[in-house]
């Protein structure tokens, strides 16, 4: 199985990128994991929120295949404990899902057509985090999920 994270806009903070890189390096031992950084939509000041979400949606669709299993990272999505998330990923692996793609949308969320295309949505927390922080938290949680699957001591419960 391959896992991808697609995000709108680059990570500006060096310390966040260093954390992401740390967990990406660790993940190489478990799974093929990639992060796709899509460019920020231009001229957003002249667009409505809906127009901006539609433009971001177009960027997502250019990077998705029909066979991808798409999961939105959305505040209204299902919340998992770390062990439950590990079980969720393991179910996708056992269920022969070839590619799971997680999406982090822009500041206004996802366009309706992106929501329609998605297979699921999940929330990392009821709290609101910056889009850059979500990337770091998510990559760490994927690493944690695989360490749980392997019975390694990273996660304590």
Automatic annotation (TrEMBL):
This protein's name: Ribosomal RNA large subunit methyltransferase H
E.C. code: 2.1.1.177
GO molecular-function term, one example from the UniProt record: rRNA (pseudouridine-N3-)-methyltransferase activity
HAMAP family: 23SrRNA_methyltr_H
GO cellular component, one term: cytoplasm
Reactions accelerated catalytically: pseudouridine(1915) in 23S rRNA + S-adenosyl-L-methionine = N(3)-methylpseudouridine(1915) in 23S rRNA + S-adenosyl-L-homocysteine + H(+)
Lineage, opening ranks: Bacteria, Pseudomonadati, Bacteroidota, Sphingobacteriia, Sphingobacteriales
UniProt-annotated location(s): Cytoplasm
Keywords on record: Cytoplasm, Methyltransferase, rRNA processing, S-adenosyl-L-methionine, Transferase
Matching InterPro entries: Alpha/beta_knot_MTases, RlmH-like, tRNA_m1G_MTases_N
PANTHER family with a match to the protein in the record: METHYLTRANSFERASE, RIBOSOMAL RNA LARGE SUBUNIT METHYLTRANSFERASE H
Role this protein plays: Specifically methylates the pseudouridine at position 1915 (m3Psi1915) in 23S rRNA.
A Pfam family of this chain: SPOUT_MTase
Binding site for S-adenosyl-L-methionine: 73, 105, 124-129
NCBIfam families with a match to the protein in the record: PRK00103.2-4 (NF000990)
Quaternary structure, from the entry: Homodimer.
Similarity annotation: Belongs to the RNA methyltransferase RlmH family.
């Amino acid at each position: 199985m391959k896992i991808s994270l697609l995000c709108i806009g680059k990570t500006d903070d060096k310390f966040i990128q260093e954390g992401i890189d740390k967990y990406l390096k660790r993940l190489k031992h478990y799974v093929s994991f990639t992060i796709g950084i899509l460019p920020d939509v231009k001229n957003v000041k002249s667009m409505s929120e809906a127009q901006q979400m539609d433009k971001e949606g177009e960027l997502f669709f250019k990077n998705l295949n029909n066979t991808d299993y798409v999961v939105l990272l959305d505040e209204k999505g299902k919340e998992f404990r770390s062990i439950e998330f590990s079980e969720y990923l393991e179910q996708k692996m056992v269920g022969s899902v070839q590619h799971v793609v997680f999406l982090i949308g822009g500041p206004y969320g996802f366009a309706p057509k992106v929501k329609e295309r998605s297979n699921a949505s999940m929330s990392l927390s009821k709290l609101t985090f910056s889009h850059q922080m979500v990337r770091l938290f998510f990559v760490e949680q994927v690493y944690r999920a695989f360490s749980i699957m392997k019975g390694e001591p990273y996660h304590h419960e």
